[in-house]
Amino acid sequence: MQIWVDADACPNPIKEILFRAATRVKLSLTLVANRPVRIPPSPYIKCVTVGSGFDVADNWIAHQVSSGDLVITADIPLAAAVIQRQAFALNPRGELYSQENISERLTMRNFMEELRSSGVDTGGPSSFSQADRQAFANQLDRFLSLNANRMKV
Predict the structure, then answer these.
(1) What is the C-alpha separation between 7 and 39, in angstroms, rounded?
(2) Sheet with 45-49, side-by-side order of all strands
């Protein structure tokens, strides 16, 4: 098992939590982005820079992920692709996507996109908060505890 991060839009506090977790449990963590991302020196952490363009990082992750891996993303279509490959997806606000909730999230995302494209102002997501950071850290710890026997570097 390893962790993949859709790093272009991942908040820095979440990256810091992931850096500490990867080092603590000696787990491979790969950040994927359209531009270089600063990472701490660690044998467990690396960054892959992909070409620029719409969904290039998402597509790269979707093709690399293996069954049982964890992907950190707020991108619902990427989360759906990850779940289809028998992997797990966790968003930076601490919601673990699953087979049970991903179709509803995808439907809502598509509906909101239709509204925006027709000119309706739907607002945006709320600001990233300390509560979001804590929810993510708690969910990550639960996930790592439950999957400790499958971890490898």
Answers:
(1) 11
(2) 45-49, 29-33, 3-6, 70-72, 88-90, 96-97
